[in-house]
Amino acid sequence: MFVVFKKSVFRQCLAAFGGSLTAMMAGTSYGWITPILIGLLGPKSEVPMTNDQSSWIISFIELGNLFSPIPAGLLVDKWGRKPCLLITGPIYIVSWVLVFATRSVNTLYLVRILQGVGMGIVYTVLPMYLGEIASPDIRGALSTFLDAMCNTGILFEYCVGPFVSYPSLALISAGVPVFFLLIFPFMPESPYFLLMQNREKAAADSLKWLRGKTDASLVEKELLAMKGSVDEEMKMKSTRRWRDLVATRVERRALLIAQVVTVSKSLSGIGAVVSYASQTFAKTADADETISLSPDLFTIIMGLTIWVVTFVAAVAVDRCGRRPLLIISSLGCSVFMLATGTYYFLDEMTSIDVDNYSIVPFSTISAYCIIFSLGLGPLVPTLQAELFPSNTRGLASGLTSVTDTIASLICMKMYEVIADNVGTFLNYWCFGVFCALGTVAMYFIVPETKGKTFHEIQMDLSRKELPKEKLVMKNLGKTTTNNVQMYS
Q1: How far is CA 150 from each of CA 48, 226, 307, 378, rounded to the nearest angstrom?
Q2: CA 366 to CA 359: how far, in whole Å?
Q3: Which CATH number goes with the domain that contains 390?
Q4: In a domain, 221, yes or no
């Protein structure tokens, strides 16, 4: 039984890894600008540009991200999760070829928009794919693959970027989408999507592969439970797709929770912190001669820290639960952002000499990244995949990605504007206040979804109790039921 269980988990992890290579592609495009930003603004720049132009190059990825989530959310229920993810491979390959070939700022604007389009597809479709291929007991862990692989891509750029040339970095980065296109075509489609298309045999084959060909009767029971849930949810589907998002109490609550959590994540400032890390650390290090580490090395350490902690979150999410991790993470982010802002306020707005304490912003920003990666980072895609019923999951995921994009775009573009016209301190104080407000909001509205099936989550959102004969009994982390367990 143990061997069968391990085989089942391995296959689900393999499919999740294959799909999450798209998140690594997004991470490489997100982190690419950080190690080369100082060089691009320097006298020997491969692509000479101003500070304002560099801020647009950083921000335009979010502009591209604004265009694709809604179309992806609509097409994902027609074409499937797998084909929509496969589209991103050629998109990223083309973008890296353009980076390799161009020395024009305007072309880089186009590249960043193109990469943003790919990112919008990834952040709309991948949470659905990960949530739908996973069994309930490991859904939280598998959903963190998105954030873990995105951070892997960012760390990859941090580690490679400072040591290779501008065109070489583009070619190396293009290797990730090529690897993805070699691996992912062999992974299964989501059984939920196949059931939505009335392709029961294909859904059964997909589920058997994902569960490692365990007891056929157990797979059949799970498939029947999935089908019952999908049929029930699809009955509520109307031709007015947008109205479906607020048609019932469940949809309204799910949409509110998803938007609040997503905005809290984006306005915590993670996009700006990651994108401007090298520049921020360089400015601080220049003021303190006692610091021997280079800004690039500090950035690598920060990226490595985020990467490691994300895997800790993957273990913790199905043990500690989503709700406590989110609340603790948001509160911790608030504390460390306010502390960072206070340091820069003393440095920029007072006569107090803080040059000998420049280790403070390195420490507080690193601590912020650690606590962010324990909750706010990896768990937003998890909730995005869990909260919505089958009939609105695609469109709701697209809308949530748009919300994320708008909030991130505002943060990333305004960071440079605020830093130049008011002071860097105000950015971090704003991030800290937003995190504090998000903590309060999440405390009151976010439910716990740990270990629950999609059906149970929908029942919780509607504030109804499950029938007694379908209550799931928990025993040592294993789920059993008296009748057919609802794996929807």
Answers
A1: 28, 30, 9, 10
A2: 11
A3: 1.20.1250.20
A4: no
